[in-house]
Amino acid sequence: MNTNLYWIAGPWPGRLAVSPRPRGGGWLEEEIIGWSESGIDVVVSLLTHEERNELDLNKEEELCRAHDNQCRRLPNRYSG
Q1: Is 6 left (phi over 0), alpha (psi -120 to 50) or beta?
Q2: Residue 78, SS3?
Q3: Cβ count near 45 (within 10 Å)
Q4: Residues 1, 30 contacting (CB under 8 angstroms)
Q5: Structure confidence by residue, pLDDT tens digits, 25-61
Q6: Is 48:77 a contact under the CB 8 Å cutoff?
Q7: What CA dihedral angle connects 4, 9, 73 and 79, to 10 degrees?
Protein backbone atom coordinates (compact mmCIF):
# COMPACT_ATOMS: atom_id res chain seq x y z
CA MET A 1 0.00 0.00 0.00
CA ASN A 2 1.32 3.41 -0.90
CA THR A 3 -1.52 5.60 0.38
CA ASN A 4 -0.78 7.18 3.77
CA LEU A 5 -3.57 6.84 6.31
CA TYR A 6 -4.02 9.54 8.95
CA TRP A 7 -5.99 8.19 11.91
CA ILE A 8 -8.34 10.57 13.76
CA ALA A 9 -9.14 9.97 17.41
CA GLY A 10 -12.72 10.58 18.46
CA PRO A 11 -15.49 9.65 20.88
CA TRP A 12 -17.25 7.34 18.38
CA PRO A 13 -16.97 3.56 18.19
CA GLY A 14 -14.56 2.23 15.58
CA ARG A 15 -11.71 4.09 13.91
CA LEU A 16 -11.64 6.89 11.34
CA ALA A 17 -8.84 7.65 8.88
CA VAL A 18 -8.39 10.15 6.08
CA SER A 19 -5.97 9.87 3.20
CA PRO A 20 -5.05 11.38 -0.13
CA ARG A 21 -6.56 9.72 -3.16
CA PRO A 22 -5.20 6.27 -4.05
CA ARG A 23 -3.01 5.52 -7.04
CA GLY A 24 -5.22 4.66 -9.99
CA GLY A 25 -5.14 2.25 -12.89
CA GLY A 26 -3.20 -0.95 -12.34
CA TRP A 27 -2.14 0.18 -8.85
CA LEU A 28 -5.67 0.64 -7.52
CA GLU A 29 -6.30 -2.94 -6.43
CA GLU A 30 -3.03 -2.99 -4.47
CA GLU A 31 -4.12 0.17 -2.67
CA ILE A 32 -7.50 -1.33 -1.76
CA ILE A 33 -5.89 -4.54 -0.50
CA GLY A 34 -3.64 -2.39 1.68
CA TRP A 35 -6.67 -0.60 3.11
CA SER A 36 -8.27 -3.93 3.97
CA GLU A 37 -5.08 -5.12 5.65
CA SER A 38 -5.09 -1.90 7.71
CA GLY A 39 -8.59 -2.66 8.98
CA ILE A 40 -10.54 -0.34 6.71
CA ASP A 41 -13.94 -1.71 5.67
CA VAL A 42 -15.76 1.42 4.43
CA VAL A 43 -14.30 3.84 1.88
CA VAL A 44 -15.87 7.27 1.29
CA SER A 45 -14.75 9.13 -1.83
CA LEU A 46 -15.28 12.87 -2.23
CA LEU A 47 -14.04 12.91 -5.83
CA THR A 48 -16.32 14.04 -8.64
CA HIS A 49 -17.02 11.84 -11.67
CA GLU A 50 -14.62 13.93 -13.73
CA GLU A 51 -11.84 13.56 -11.14
CA ARG A 52 -12.36 9.78 -10.96
CA ASN A 53 -12.01 9.60 -14.75
CA GLU A 54 -8.94 11.82 -14.81
CA LEU A 55 -7.23 9.82 -12.03
CA ASP A 56 -8.21 6.40 -13.46
CA LEU A 57 -10.20 5.42 -10.36
CA ASN A 58 -13.37 4.23 -12.11
CA LYS A 59 -13.01 0.67 -10.77
CA GLU A 60 -12.71 1.75 -7.14
CA GLU A 61 -16.25 0.74 -6.18
CA GLU A 62 -16.01 -2.62 -7.98
CA LEU A 63 -12.61 -3.43 -6.44
CA CYS A 64 -13.76 -2.40 -2.97
CA ARG A 65 -16.67 -4.85 -3.22
CA ALA A 66 -14.30 -7.59 -4.44
CA HIS A 67 -12.24 -7.10 -1.26
CA ASP A 68 -15.22 -6.89 1.14
CA ASN A 69 -15.17 -3.11 1.52
CA GLN A 70 -18.11 -0.79 1.18
CA CYS A 71 -17.59 2.20 -1.11
CA ARG A 72 -19.62 5.39 -0.75
CA ARG A 73 -19.46 8.37 -3.08
CA LEU A 74 -20.07 11.90 -1.85
CA PRO A 75 -18.82 14.04 -4.75
CA ASN A 76 -17.67 17.42 -3.52
CA ARG A 77 -16.99 20.28 -5.90
CA TYR A 78 -14.82 22.84 -4.23
CA SER A 79 -12.86 25.85 -5.31
CA GLY A 80 -9.19 25.78 -4.36
Answers
A1: beta
A2: coil
A3: 19
A4: yes
A5: 999 999 999 999 999 999 999 999 999 999 999 999 9
A6: yes
A7: -80
